[in-house]
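Q: What structure does this chain adopt?
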Amino acid sequence: MSKKGKVLVAMSGGIDSTVSALLLHEQGYEVIGITMKTWDYAASGGGKKETGCCNLDSFNDARTAAVEHGFPHYVLDIREEFGDFVINNFVEEYIAGRTPNPCVLCNTHIKWAALLKRANSLGCDFIATGHYVKVREENNRQVLSKAKDLTKDQSYVLWGLGQECLARSIYPLGDLLKIEVRQIAFDMGYKELSKKAESYEICFVPDNDYRGFLKRNVAGLEDRVKGGDFVLADGQVVGKHNGYPFYTIGQRKGLEVAFGKPMFVTNILPDTNTVVLGEAHELQQSEMTVKGLNMVKYQSIPDGMEAVTKIRYRDAGMESVLSPALDGSVHVKFEHAVNSIAPGQSAVFYEGDDVVAGGIIQKA
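A:
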């Protein structure tokens, strides 16, 4: 038994998780690799092969690295629980006129739960992944914070992790730049892996066509929602759309209606199968409500707390004031108006580099 303990490392076959496992192995941890199969893309009826974390090549790459360095590797099939929870939520959110973030949901409710369950059964002290984040203990709480490489930071997608998950998690890449990770892989003899491209696709929508996914997986959807109205904010009908679930807040392309000026989706009204359009300035909003909070740095948010709020992964964030409500939600008032607030997406509150809390945008 290693003095540093036993760690279960989630290995997708990509560069980040592979380097994480090898670094922990070098540091003296007793490493066990595990690759989670979340989705069988062929089952969705799509025209592309599996990509990213769910293809056989990735499984083999992860297993090869483990074998070469003398630690065990397992494949964990979580397709059933992933599908039941993540896929159902993904579909339900679009049907409700919202824009879901399935990766956040998967991390929070599926992957880490599966990792902890298997870690316990294997007698592992810790779990580890290749995410670019940091965790530290402060005031008896586990604090999630941004990685050294801010261009790769993934704290936004991990806001939902609870204190138990954070307490047992190790993130070896938190203090490394991506260029350093590639160099480590190269120096370890993984020359092809060091140049491997990254995938930013949703694992169960590898062609990035979420509309096609909905059509294939929701029986009769097109017939139920076709022929709805495009309207302006004052209710004036300006055209017909293909069904409200096939549009997202801020969308400009693919409207298939000519207006003589740029127009954007500003609101989605599922009850009337209506999509509201407006000019760019109509996407600017200064307030929103966030529900389903997970507290990270503190146990609660004091009324009037100042924080930088991010409303999407690539968002730089905006200064804001937070006001908790009795129902557990938080009202967010931005210092300056922000663009394209989309209900269903995640909002994450930061104090410096630290994640204060996160939740789901309910309404703007």
